[in-house]
Structures are given as structure tokens and as C-alpha cells.
Fold this sequence. Notes:
By secondary structure, this protein is α+β, with helices and mostly antiparallel strands. Helices cover 51% and strands 12% of the residues.
Amino acid sequence: xxxxxxxxKAVKTFVDPNGHVRGQQxxxxxxxxxxxxxxxxxxxxxxxxxxxxxxxxTLIMTNLSFASVEEWLDQHPELAADYFVRKAxxxxxxxxxxxxxxxxxxxxxxxxxxxxxLTCSPCASPSSPIDKIADSIFNDDDxxxxxxxxxxxxxxxxxxxxSKSVFRTYEPSAASAAAEARRSSFRAMRKxxxxxxxxxxxxxxxxxxxxxxxxxxxxTLDRKKQLRSQDEKDFFLDIVKDIANDLDLKGLTHKIIINxxxxxxxxxxxxxxxxxxxxxxxxLVSKVFDVHSGTNIYPATTEDNAMEVPWGKGILxxxxxxxxxxxxxxxxxxxxxxDEVDRITGYHTDSLLCMPVRNSYNEIIAVAQVVNKSSGxxxxxxxxAKDEKMFATYLQFVGIAIxxxxxxxxxxxxxxxxxxxLEVVHDLFEEQTSLENVILKTxxxxxxxxxxxxxxxxxxxxGSEKQNVKFSKIFELNCxxxxxxxxxxxxxxxxxxxxxxxxxxxxxxCTGENMxxxxxxxVEKGSAGNVRSMLAMPIxxxxxxxxxxxxxxxxxxxxxxxxxxxxxFEAFTIFCGxxxxxxxxxxxxxxxxxxxxxxxxxxxxxATASVQDVQKMQKEGVPEASKWNLGSLTFDDFSLNQxxxxxxxxxxxxDLRLTSRFKIEYKTLLRWLITVKRNYRNVPYHNWRHAFNxxxxxxxxxxxxxxxxTFEDVECLAMFVGCLCxxxxxxxxxxxxxxxxxxxxxxxxxxxxxMEQHHFNHAVMILNSEGHNxxxxxxxxxxxxxxxxxxxxxxxxxxxVYFQLRSQFFPLVADGQFDASIREHRxxxxxxxxxxxxxxxxxxxxxxxxxxxxxxxxxxxDQGDLEKSKLKITPPALMDRDRKxxxxxxxxxxxxxxxxxxxxxxxxxxxxIAPMRDGAxxxxxxxxxxxxxxxxxxxxxxxxxxxxxxxxxx
Length: 954
């Protein structure tokens, strides 16, 4: 940093009339100093970067103390924080963390970072600002590029550090111990930091392995030599225990070859593991090659010293193939001997002992070899029969240890694979709005996990046939062999890809079979490049139909794709197909929602009241209730036409004092009533006329029978509006029919109160339409209550609800315990009054009752015809047109079982309801008499002429 104060100068500061801080330098030797109370900002700013000794002398000469500077910094924390963020180095940050208890400094062996290692203190506060600095502390020094401090990278690093060490069972070196300490600190900091509970963070916790394997410290080489010389039996037991708990194959190999060298007094040893290639051939591979008895016990950290031996070639290959022991005094004289090892190591091999290692199934899983018996031994440089016996005995334990290590290695690979696939699932289903993003994430994951140079996805055209395959889109992800992260995914035309590669992809799409090209294949230059190996598989949707082809090209290690790669890539193609399918479905859903929005706008325009209709009704006068006999319980349901029913509804709103009490605008009320009328379908019975008649019955009960005093005004409003809306958009079929046919309504609302829920939601839709909210002037509490009562009132018109409630209501009125002041009793009464109004046609004079019965029967017969034609079932007797002669008997039972008990119970609550009870009883007697006449052959009583014409809408 730049020094702003010279050694022989001090700083004098002052504030000019404009409020700006000014300063000038003066020689230190002068008598001028900074006056007390002089603003410190310029002084402090100019002192930045001064060496400590110079700074102290400068502060003394300028009459500035450290306390003054510290006080000024305390008064300006934002400037102090800004300076720390801009200027603080890694060492200062570490010191701050240590001083505040977030980290502790532990002295240990030297590492790349030095002799001190950092570990996280458990007292770290959850609210500490560790998230912002963890990346800068725990990045390796050899990583020059600055990582992003976003939570995305932190979560990925967290998952990565979990997976790196979870299966490590060998004793770490000093360097690896320091790295593990940093990773452990990072993991602890992530747990103590205030990371939000995002899906990515929860995924990291989910894939974190809970496996903690035992780790035992290996005895030193000197201790082993001492035991070897003192007691061979104890030494043998120790070297068996030394390998018994090590599940890392490389560390185990290192221990085995050192122990073999000591056990047999050999100059060196080697261990080759049997592995299978992608072509199904066997090969011998050394994890750690030719480690001699003088080396330390830590395992190698690279694959540079690994070596392969062909099956059946040389002494090692022949022993692996035949399973026989080879003991040579002069190895170079044997024709099977290959001196390649001697050329690599620089040693001359004389004596040699080679023996196979078997597992519990007596299968050869490895070959062990010791060379050059120590010349000081009594055997004079030759491996004896005793050595062979000891060698074979120890190799039995080696076989067990290698088997366990291989199982652990397979378990680790399976864990890594499952972890990667889980991350793929998260990535794919987190991003379903863009097809390009879904494919890009899949390609990136596949390329990273399978370690290949290139990856591509080709999507088939819709309707493409197997005989003529065509790709509509091709997505490629290229990665240079150098490993630089310059990957780009782009959609390209089919002409940019080599024709040979396209032809292979077309074959995969046609046959539906996987294609693994292991041999080198020369293809056209250009974007296709040079293909050494390729793996291609079909992509299928949820219906197992091929929708594309995925392929990966050229493994980075130059080897062909093996069986493990095929299994992993097949899982990728499955997830890719699901992701593509879900993305396409999401796009279709967006289009469907857009179409639905347009349809609703169109229907709303045509189904709502027009300005002309409202103006026409405004010009009409609203007659008194007495003119149309609205107050009578015996009102003629067929006495008014469509427009008169709208005006009559306005009159009932007014006489119930609902318009004045809740400040309902007249024009809004008219618009709402006309729209409600338009939203009833032209069905025989459940139409606008039925809704008006139900509302009239409620009006007569509230007004004529003095039931308004029993309920609150808000409840009366909700009940009356509920009567007008209780069958909105009725289709002429009941709930049972919706369930049998699996209609859209049943899928939307379920099988309970299906139509009633639809009626309520339709009523809410009308109320939410512009200019239709008759509840707009209600308070928030009133609006909440009226909507709740409105829903309960409409749902109460379902007879299944009536059967549930009457078992509670009838005992109360029979025992004289009904009390309208109790809220639960009043709720029961409100629901049963809705049912009473809905079936009130059974109480009207006989001619009205007979007409209504014919309309209901006509609608039921229409549903019965649909059940016969569509469902191929026999409908109930009430809906079977072939059994219309049973109508009187069915009506009589209807009134006797359903209607009369309800009206009798309501009469016990209010005697003024008695006319409805009596009317129902008279009609039951009429239906009984009609049933007797039909039995005597008078079938003309039910002829169609008696049925009034269907009431038109509008």
C-alpha cells in the first residue's frame, strides 16, 4: 500500500468554510502541531499504509493518539468496515476468526499451508458472517481463480467435501490431514451458519453419508522390523491386524507389499489385482507398484505408478491363469520372465516367488509376488518351502482383506452414482420451464460424471416414423481435452453434425437398442472431430415411446465406455426423458391455461348482463309484493315470466331490508340478477325458474313466518342469495352421474357435494366479475361471514347433507330441547330451511305440485337414457323411462320419507310453517289415490300432454 506520510513530515488538517477537509504537510522538526479538536478524517486517511513505527512517531508528533483514532473509527463503523473489506488479507481474517472464537489454531506436522492448521470452534454463532468469508479461507492456495461466494457454490462444495472423505479408511499423510482439517472446518461452518432451508441445501444433507468406518493406526516400520526379529508369531498377528481393518484398496495394497517384504525378508514385493476390461477380458492391475521395504507406510496419491499385466503373459499372467505357485532361484532364466519390470525399477531380479490370491469362492482375485530373498538369510537367496507356506498362509488373510476392500470400493462407487443421480433429479425437476435448460443440465451432468469429451441430445420430429427418422433439434456440449471450462451448449442444425454420427443416431432411434462403439472410428472432420469411442442410447417418454437419442463421445482417459458407463448413462437417459416429457407437459399446461383464460373471457362477455339489458330493466317499475302474491306459501311457481322473476327478486331484496341494510346499489343488483339468470342452463327443472321459486320460499319463511328474528341480517342475506345461486350451471344430472362418468366436475371437486361445490364456485365467480359484487359495501368481518354462510347454505341443498343433519335436528325438536339462541342449533335450522325451500314444491297446491313432478321426472328420464346409452347400466326406477307407471308410488314415498318429516320438525319450531306440512300431506294422499287408479288401468293420467312446456331461458 502507498505511504501517504513521509518520515520527516507531519500532517495538519482543517475544515474550510465550504465544509471540506483540507490538509497540508509540515516538517516534523517545526513547532507547529495539530490543534486539539481538529477533524481526524483526513489525518486517518493519509495515515493508511504507514509502517507501525513511523505511524507511532507520526501520531506523537501530530498530537494524535491511538485512542483518538480508535474513537473516530468507532464513530464511523461503516468506514472502518469498508476499509477492512477492501484491505484485509487472509492472515488478518484468520486472526479475527481465532480472536472471536470461531477457529482454533492447532500445532501439528507441516503441510502445504504451514505448521498450524485451522479447525472450527463449536461455539460459532448461527448468525456469524461466516458464509461471506468461508470461500476465501478454505480455498487451496494453488487455486488462483477466485470462486464465487454464492450459496450455490457453497452448497456444491459442501456436498463435494462430504463425498471425498466418507469412505477413506487409511491413515492420512500430513498433507492430507491438513486438507481434511480444512474440509472438516468448512463442514462445521456450513452447519453453524445461517443457511436458508433451500431445496439444494436439504439435498446436500440428504445425500450426506452417515457411514463412519473404523480407522486404526498402522504400526511403524521400525516397530515391525523389531517384532520380526523378536517373535515371528506376534509379528504375523500384527501384520494380519494391520490389513484387517483397511478398506481402501490402494492403502491396503501398500501395506500388503510392505508386510510381504518384511515377512519373507525380500527386497521388494508387488500385488496385482484381477480386473475385467470393457471387452470382457481379464487383466492384472497394480494399485501401487513395486514398493520396496525401505519406503514409508503412506499410500501413493497418484495413479502414475500403476501398471497393467496382460492375462496369461509373463510369470504374473501365467500364475493368474493357472493358479499355480512359481518359485524361481534365477528368474531371468525362465522363458516366461519379462524384464520390463526390471527396466522400470532399475533392479535386477534373481529369486522370485509368485502365488495367486483367492477369495472365499476359491476364485483368483489377485497375484502377489516377492523378489530377491535377502542374502543374509540361511536360504542363501532362495525362497524355501517354509517361505511358501508362510506366504500362502498370509495370502489367505490378504484375500479376505482385498475382498472387503473391493466390496467397499463397489459400495463407494454405488454411493457416488446414487448421489449424482439424485442431483440430476433435483436439477431436472427444479427447472421445467425451458427445454433447453433441462437438456443442458443433463448434458453437463453426464459429461462431468462420465468424463467424456462431448455429449449430445437429438430430439425426433413429431410424427416421425421409424422408417424415416428425422431430428428436429440437436443439442451439443463440447469440452476441450485440456479440461478448461469453456463448454457451450447450443442448438444446431443437423447439417453441422457429421453425417456418419447422424446415421448412427438414426439407427439407435429406429432399433431402440443401445450402441457402444469401442473401436476407433474415423469420421469426417469438422464439428464431428475424431471419434475414438461412442455410446448412444434412445430417450423415451413416460409411454416408452422414443422421442430422441442421447450420445457421449470419447472418454477423457482414452478408454472405451464400459458396462458401468452404460448403466449410468442409461439412468441419465431415463431422467432426461422424464425431464423432457415434464417440460413439454408444462408447456402444454401453459397453453391450456392460456386457452382457458381466453375461454373464460369469452364466456364472461356472453354470460354477463349487457348494458342494454340492465338499462331495459331499470326502466321497468318494481311492483309491490302483494301484486304478485309473493308473501304467500302457496305462491304459483308458474305465474311469472323471466323478466318478472328478476323484478320480483328485486322486490324481495327490498322487503327483506337487504338493499338498505347492506347498501346494495340498485344497478349492481340488477346486473347481478340478470347474470345469475343467464348462468342457469335450459334444462327441464333445475333452471332459473326453480332458483327463483326456492328464493321465494325462503322469502316467505323469513317474512311471512317471522323467521328473520331468528337469524342475523348477514345470515339472512347469505341464505337468500344462496337460494338464487344454489343450482347455478346445473347440467340436468346429479352427483351420482358425475361420479359414474368420471366427469371433469368429479375430477375437479371430488365425489362429495360435487355439483353443490360447483354451484358455489360459480356464484363466487359471478360476484368477482366487474360490477357484480353486491357485497362490496360490507365490512371485512361481514364479508367473511356472508361468504362462509353462503357456502354452507348451498352445500346444504345436497340431500346427503340433509340426511346427516336431520338425525341431529329431529331429536332436539322432539324432546323440546331446540334453542335458536345456541349457535349450533341455529346452524342446523339454517341448513334444514335451505332443504325445505328446495323441496317446497311438494307443499304447493296439487296442480302446481303435479306440473313440477312431471318436470323433475322428465329431467330424471333424460339422465336415465344417458346411463343406458353411455354407461350401459340400468338406471334407478325413478330415472327409468320404461317404469314411468311407478311415478305416483315413488312420489308418495318421496313425500312420506323425505318431505313430511322435515316439515313436521320445522312446524314444531315455528307453527306458522304448518301450511307447508299440511300441503305435503294432501299431495301425498293425491299421489296415493293416483297410484291406485294406475293399478286399475287408468294410464292416461301420466301422458305427456299433462307436462307443461320447457321453460325457455332469457
